[in-house]
Design brief:
265 residues; alpha/beta; Rossmann fold; 8-stranded mixed sheet; two-stranded antiparallel ribbon; 12 strands; 33% helix
Length: 265
């Protein structure tokens, strides 16, 4: 195989699909959102994105090996005119910078050939005063910090600007977005493709389920006919906060790797 290639089950149909992209983000928000959508929309694994220079790893889930960049699809009907199905692209892997543009270019060529309707990129930015923890790959944004979990949007076309306004998501005024999300937004803008990003303020110290729940609330306006129940995400957030509070109150020294891993368990 030479270069990047999107491969799907031969029966997969993404014509008029909303493509949801979840690549690594601050607080693992995109990963939490992706797994939540897979479970609650009953999406099924149908393929992925391959490149010979991607790290030689696989994700094992329920005894089944899966590629690092995966595709899922299902029956959910979009609430947006002109969109009648959902396809999810996700990865826990930070795509190496030298491969980003080639993989993004292949995704755009594939989505155009298959006549996908539009795309939404799920991302997160670190709370003010905190570092993102993604080795410099996290978005750097200027925003007005409020007591609530703040959400911002970026749109590649006027149509997507209007969609963000309908969803009551304010536009990002200034910032720098890197990695897959940044490259896809830039490519979408230059190609005139209907793509946007929804970005949420997140705590980079642990998987931020509360921030993911805010994203889910906004996705409810786009995705299924029946609203998603994001209660379990809020419960998970509370459990994580309790673990962290206990560790801070009881720790007299730096946490060990074993105790730190509890934050993700």
């Amino acid at each position: 195989m030479e270069g990047a290639k999107v491969w799907l089950d031969k029966n997969a149909d993404i014509e008029d699909a909303l493509v949801v992209c979840c690549f690594p983000s601050v607080g693992m928000v995109s990963s939490v959102v992706a797994h939540f959508l897979i479970d609650h929309l009953e999406l099924e694994f149908i393929g992925g994105v391959a490149h010979p220079k991607l790290p030689a790893i696989c994700l094992v889930q329920d005894g089944v090996p899966l590629p690092p960049i995966r595709a899922y699809s299902g029956k959910p009907i979009c609430k947006i005119e002109g969109c009648d199905k959902v396809l999810l692209l996700m990865s826990e892997l930070i795509v190496p910078d030298p491969l980003v543009h080639e993989i993004v270019s292949e995704i755009f060529a594939w989505s155009k050939n298959e006549k996908a309707a539009m795309g939404v990129l799920i991302d997160a930015f670190a709370r003010k005063g905190m570092k993102g923890g993604l080795n410099g790959n996290e978005p750097m944004v200027e925003y007005e910090d409020t007591d609530d979990v703040d959400v911002l949007g970026v749109a590649a076309t006027p149509k997507m600007v209007e969609l963000l306004k309908e969803m009551e998501i304010p536009l990002l005024e200034q910032g720098v977005i890197k990695g897959m999300t940044g490259a896809m937004l830039s490519e979408g803008g230059s190609r005139g493709r209907n793509i946007m990003s929804i970005m949420v303020e997140a705590d980079p110290r642990f998987p931020d389920a509360r921030a993911a729940a805010v994203i889910i609330e906004h996705l409810n306006k786009m995705l299924p006919v029946v609203d998603l129940d994001h209660g379990p995400l809020l419960e998970e957030a509370q459990q994580l906060e309790e673990q962290i509070r206990s560790m801070m109150e009881g720790a007299d020294s730096e946490p060990t790797p074993a105790s730190a891993s509890m934050l993700y368990g």
